[in-house]
Amino acid sequence: MLQRLKYKDLELEFERDLDKLREEARDARSKTTLPPSDESVVADLDYYLQQVRESSPRNAVIEAWLGLESSAVSTATHFKLMPEGARVTASSAIKALVTAGVLSDNDMRIINELRLLRNKAVHELSASISEYEAAKFLEIARDVSDIIAGEAWQKFGGCSG
Fold first, then answer.
1. What distances in angstroms separate CA 11 from CA 5, 6, 15, 67, 160, one per listed residue?
2. What is the tens place of the pLDDT at every residue in 4-60?
3. Mean pLDDT of all residues in 102-109
4. Running DSSP on this structure, what letter comes out for residue 159?
5. Which one-letter DSSP state was computed for residue 102?
6. Closest listed residue to residue 118, CA positions, set 136, 137, 131, 104
């Protein structure tokens, strides 16, 4: 099981940091009112991610990160937070969500730490991620996606301009 992560000059203890991030994300999510959602779609996604996690924890981390990015892009696009005609990337969408006050500094810190852990999973061939660690990453990424949707829903009333 991967215990330590070194990425550039930043060293993280993978499991301990996942535990810490999970608590912070849970706390932030508990303060957010979630928009209505189709429970069957959520259940299907959960089932898919569980299957990926069981077969390849590394791929589960990647899929969870892609889901978080997708949430940021779809939210920024839906609420028209991107400049007209701008190329929409996950990074630009996240910046727009910060500028609009949807994401707090703490939310951004969690996202940045998740990004570092995701980079580890993608770029370091020697990284060994357990199913348990992947499950934690999935939970945190889902919480952050819920925060993005919930905070935008609260701020903008669920409808775009």
1. 5, 4, 12, 25, 41
2. 445 443 334 556 677 788 888 888 877 877 676 656 556 666 666 677 667 688 888
3. 94
4. S
5. S
6. 137
The residue count of the chain comes to: 161
Give the DSSP per-residue string, 32-95: SPPPP--HHHHHHHHHHHHHHHHH-HHHHHHHHHHHHHHHHHHHHHHTT-SPTT----HHHHHH
Q: Which of 58, 66, 43 is nearest to 134 (CA)?
A: 58
* H/E segment holding residue 104: none
Residues 53, 135 contacting (CB under 8 angstroms): yes
Backbone angles phi, psi at 13, to 5 degrees: -95, 110
Number of helices and strands in the chain (H, E): 6, 2
User: For residues 111 and 71, is the Cβ–Cβ distance under 8 A?
Assistant: no
CB 108 within 8 A of CB 98: yes
The backbone region for 37, taken as left when phi is positive above 0, alpha when psi lies in -120 to 50, beta otherwise, is beta
CA–CA separation, 15 vs 28, rounded Å? 20
